[in-house]
Amino acid sequence: MNTRNLVSLLLFCSMFLVSCPNVFDPIDNPSGDAQLLSAARACFDQGNLTCAKENYGKITGTTDAEYAAAETAFTILEENGVAMGDFVGAFASGDAAKALSSLALKFANKAGPTTRQTIYGAYKKLYSISSNVELKGLVRFATAIVLAAEILAENTDNTDGVVRKSDFVTTPSGCTSVTTPSCSTNASCDKASNKIIKSVSSENLTPTAVSSLPALDGTLDLAIFQGAMNAIYYAMSNEINASGDFKSGTEDFSKTLQERFEQDPFGSTLATKVDKCYRAILVTELF
Fold first, then answer.
1. What is the SS3 assignment for 191?
2. Among the listed residues 62, 63, 41, 60, the one whose alpha carbon sits nearest the alpha carbon of residue 52
3. Is the pTM of this model over 0.85?
C-alpha cells in the first residue's frame, strides 16, 4: 500500500469510527468482495487496467466464462499493439483527448477496416459478461477507447500514425473557437478533403443485445467515432464506479462530445452547423 492510500484509509477509519485492526496489512492481496472492489477501483483510478481486471474478476459471482471473455478482449487489444500498460502512460495526466491521440500511434501503418473489425470483436466480448457489471464496464471502456483511437488513426493519411489538426479541418489555425454560433459558421472548420470525420449521426454501441450492434463495416465516418465515445461515457457513468483524474478526464471529454452531438440550436440546419463545431472540439482538445 502506498503512503497516500494508507493515509486515506486511516482518515476514513478515524472519521467514521470504524474498526481497522489490520491497517498495515498489505492490500496488494485483497480478500472479500468489498476489498476486491475497492482495490479494483483504486487500480482503475491509476490507469492500471490489468490490476483492475484481476480484482474485478475475483468478485463473488463472476464465472470463469465471464473472466475468460474479459481476458480474451484484452488479449485481442494486446495482439493489435495496445497493451494494458499503455493506458497508464496515455492517461497519466487524466487528459482523455490527448490520450486518444497517443493511442492512435499504436495503429501506424495498420489502421483500416480489418483492424477496426478486430478491435470491434474485442468490444463484443462484453456481452458475455452479465453478473459483474464493473468488469463488463472495464471491458467496454478499454475496447471502446481503443476503437476510437483506431478510428482516429484511420482518419489520418500519415504513415507515422500521428494525428494532426489538418486531418479534421481545412484551416486549423482558423478553427479555434468551440462556441456556437461562431464555430457553426466558420469555414475554417469545414471538413478536410478526403477525410472521414464528416457525418452528424451516431451508431448505437450500447444496445442490450449483441445482435443489435451495428456492423461498423461501411464507410467510416464520425458516426462510428461518436458511437465509441458514447460507449466510453456509458461505461463511466453506468458501470464503473471509480473516481479520480483518470475517470473524470475521460468522462468529461466523452460527455462534452456527446452533449455537442445531441445539441440542436439550429433546427433543420443542424447537420451542417454542429458538424463544424464538433470538429472544432476535436481540433482544440486532441492536441
1. strand
2. 41
3. no
